[in-house]
Structures are given as structure tokens and as C-alpha cells.
Amino acid sequence: MRLRAEREAVVAHARRMAADGLAVGTSGNLSTRAGDLVAITPTGVPYDVLTAEDVVVVDLDGTPVEGRLRPSSEVPMHTAVYRGTDAGAVVHTHPVHATALSTLLDELPPIHYMVVLLGGPVRVAPYAPYGTEELARLGVEGLAGRSAVLLANHGATTYGDDLAQAYERGVLLEWLCRLYAQARALGEPRLLDAEQLERARVAFGGYGQGGGSAGGGSAGGGSANAGGAWGSR
Ligand SMILES: [Zn+2]
């Protein structure tokens, strides 16, 4: 079986999604890249019974290479993120707070300094039907300089160097959205300004927008060090 370790990582993270509030039923999908191949969740299989054999291997154009099931309907979005960024893994979810705010905002305001771990205030990409190349294109555009994007009236997508980091960023994004929603329910939240965000960025190791390679795709990605930092602060 090709990409066995990657397939097992997909299963391990998929099984956490319901408990972490990132997905309901079979919604959401995860993938991780190894060279020119991508291991991605199949469509329609409940995560609690998902096995490594069920995970599908596709190439960077989304063509199935190995697997007995059909890959996720969001293959175009996953492969577009791999082609357009330096992502090593992509996590797409439908968490309730992120999805609620995706119907209200054009950008998640900087309510907490940890948003710098996602590259800065997270954009909301315009609505497009699920599974389409249009949604994939709009999502990648929304990711410019960021490692997270909200998809209007749909959900959220994050990426990272590996599945652990992409998943952790998905959890962080949902937490930020829940925080903003709860603060807004009580009043008008005070937001961080550009200087405060920049100081947080420097404190986290100076990575972030403008700190990546000239390719433009890595600006939203942080180092492994920074990616693991948010849980401990
Ligand atoms: Zn979706």
C-alpha cells in the first residue's frame, strides 16, 4: 500500500474531528502530501470506522492513483492548495462558529494575538458551490499570506507543514471564531491594531506575512516551533 504512514495519519486526525467540534457526520476532509502524491479522506465514510485502506491516493491534479473508494468531493480544493502554497497537509472542516461567522463577515477581526499564527486576520472567501474549481480558486486566493481561510456559508480550510500543524490551526481558527462570537454577543470587542499584531508576530519568532520565501505561498506558514506554541500561551 502506497503512503501507508500518510494514510494512517489521515485516519488518526479524521477520528478526532467530531470530538473536537470540527465536523459533523462525514463532513470535512483531510489530506497530506508526500512528493507528487496526496493521501485524502474518501467521500461518505464515517470517521469512526475509517481505515488506512479506505484513504485514497491522488496525484496533484486530483487523479486517483490508488484506493478502492472515491476521494473526497473537495479534491479540487486540496490539490489547488498544494499547487498554490508550500502546504504539506490540508484540513477542511465545517465547525459551527467558523461557519456561522462566514455568513456574517468578510474577515475575522484580530481579536486575539494568536491570529498571527494563522498569518494575520483570516479572510472570508466568497461563496461557491462545494467541490468546484471555483471554490478551490477562491479559497487559495483567500489564503494569500495566510494559512487559514473561511469559506462563506460553508466552513474553513487550514494548511500546515504536516497534518498535526494543519489540524492544530483548524482548532485554533475555530477557537478564535468562538471567541469573537462570544465577545460580540456581549458587546463591541476591542481589537488589536497592526503594531500590536506585529509585536506578537515578532514574539512568536518573526515569521509570518512577508517572512516567507519569494514564492508567496509560504507567507502564512510558520515554523514548527511557532505552530506548536499557541497551546502553551
Ligand atoms: Zn466542505
Automatic annotation (TrEMBL):
Residues 211-233 are annotated as: Disordered. InterPro entries: Aldolase_class_II_sugar_metab (IPR050197), Aldolase_II/adducin_N (IPR001303), Aldolase_II/adducin_N_sf (IPR036409). Keywords: Lyase, Metal-binding. The keyword Metal-binding applies. It comes from the Bacteria. GO terms for molecular function: aldehyde-lyase activity; metal ion binding. Residues 8-181 form the Class II aldolase/adducin N-terminal domain. One of its GO terms (cellular component) is cytosol. Pfam families: Aldolase_II (PF00596). One of its GO terms (biological process) is pentose catabolic process. PANTHER family: 3-OXO-TETRONATE 4-PHOSPHATE DECARBOXYLASE-RELATED, FUCULOSE PHOSPHATE ALDOLASE. This is L-fuculose 1-phosphate aldolase. It comes from Actinomycetospora cinnamomea.
